[in-house]
Amino acid sequence: MKPLLIIFFTLLLFSCEENNSPDQNEELIVDKEPAKPQLVVPVEVSIVKYEIVKQSIPLTGILQPISAIDIISETSGKVQQIFRNLGDPVSTRDTLARIDDRVPLSQYHQAQAQVLSAKNNLDIAKLNLSSDKDLFESGDISKLEFENTLLAVKTAEANHLSALASLSLSEKSFLDTRITSPIYGEISRKHIDPGTMVNIGMNLFRVVDYSTLKIEIGVSQKLISLINVGSPAKITISALNGLTVEGKVRHISPQADEQTGTFLVEIHIPNNAKQMKAGMTVSIELTITSDDEKIVIPNHALVTKNGNSFVYKIENGKAQITEVHLSNSIGSKTIIESGISQGDSIVVVGLKSLGMNTPVLIETVHE
Predict the structure, then answer these.
(1) Beta strands 41-47 and 358-366: pairing type?
(2) Each residue of 42-71: pLDDT tens digit?
(3) How many other C-beta atoms lie within 10 A of the C-beta of residue 10?
(4) What pLDDT is recorded for position 38?
(5) What torsion do the CA atoms of 313, 316, 318, 324 make, to the nearest 10 degrees?
(6) How confident is residue 114, by pLDDT bands cut at 50, 70 and 90?
(7) How far apart are CA 42 and CA 319, in angstroms?
(8) Exposed (0-12), middle (13-18) or buried (19+): which is 125, by Cβ within 10 Å?
């Protein structure tokens, strides 16, 4: 009986082990199940290349005359006549106004008389010197007498020079009563009328030359190296129904402004028709060009993470995120210092769907 029981339990245990073992066909199916394929993202790429950077940057400014002079009185007196009025053209030869000149004219005539008197005294002294020289050489007068005659000539020369200096000053005082302009232009301000009492230092007129107009703008430190004397600028004046004219950069400050940190750039615009007026607000498109070729990419190809800049570079059909070092941002483009090279392909459309080593399908290549 006991041997039969042992055989029965042995068969029962073997049967349980078979039921608990995995099905071989099921295990084969699990092993052969394919892994999930990684999603391929369609993108557009651009080929990195060197190029001359040429970009227009928008700015605003105010038209100013190329020259503007405040004419200040250098004498005192009553205004006798006004020869030019607001808006009149003037030259450096024109008299704009005349101040009472009776006292300066009298002083001028007196100074002329003093010059003539001093000149006569000098001539007499020279004649005496010539005569006394002969007498001294013949022994008829002493050395002391001869030296006194020589001293008289020097004194007469000094008096003559002093009289000439007085004449020059009195002439200037007389001419100061004639108000003139040091530049060609037009009168934009007039502060006097006939009968006005003026003093030294009083502002009488303002003359502006707007045959050429200028615009002063501040340019950032990042862009100043790309601007050169002669760089073109497109100027639009809204007050003249959107009139567009061409200007050029004429001056660039070598030093940044202490307060703003920007560099002063002066743009000149010809105004031959005198249609544009000083004080008008204008829109500017300043064209900047690099001196040599640089690697430039569109701004929308850049990804910023933790303050660093990256691009997606295509390698072996996958988008690899690559750090780049930037130089200047010019309008819609950025100059790259390092990180990518000429001939690399970078993603410009489809960046939002990319991650690390994402497979991509290149739909468009922008040269």
Answers:
(1) parallel
(2) 988 999 988 887 778 889 999 999 999 999
(3) 10
(4) 64
(5) -20
(6) very high
(7) 11
(8) buried
What is the 3-class SS of the chain, one letter each residue?
Answer: CHHHHHHHHHHHHHHHHHHHCCCHHHHHHHHCCCCCCCCCEEEEEEECCEEEEEEEEEEEEECEEEEEEEEECCCCEEEEEECCCCCCEECCCCEEEEECCHHHHHHHHHHHHHHHHHHHHHHHHHHHHHHHHHHHHHCCCCHHHHHHHHHHHHHHHHHHHHHHHHHHHHHHHHHCCEEECCCCEEEEEECCCCCCEECCCCEEEEEEEEEEEEEEEEECCCCHHHCCCCCEEEEEEHHHCCEEEEEEEEEEEEEECCCCCCEEEEEEEECCCCCCCCCCEEEEEEEEEEEEEEEEEEHHHCEEECCEEEEEEEECCEEEEEEEEEEEEECCEEEEEECCCCCCEEEEECHHHCCCCEEEEEEEEEC
Amino acid code (one letter) for 225 = S
Side-chain-side CA neighbours of residue 324 (13 Å):
27
CA distance 250 to 278: 18
For the chain, which residues make up each domain, given as ranges? 44-53+294-366, 58-66+209-291, 101-176
- pTM value is 0.65
As a CATH number, domain 58-66+209-291 is 2.40.30.170
CATH code for 44-53+294-366?
2.40.420.20
Q: Under CATH, which architecture does the 101-176 domain have? A: Orthogonal Bundle (1.10)
Contact 287, 55 (CB under 8 A): yes
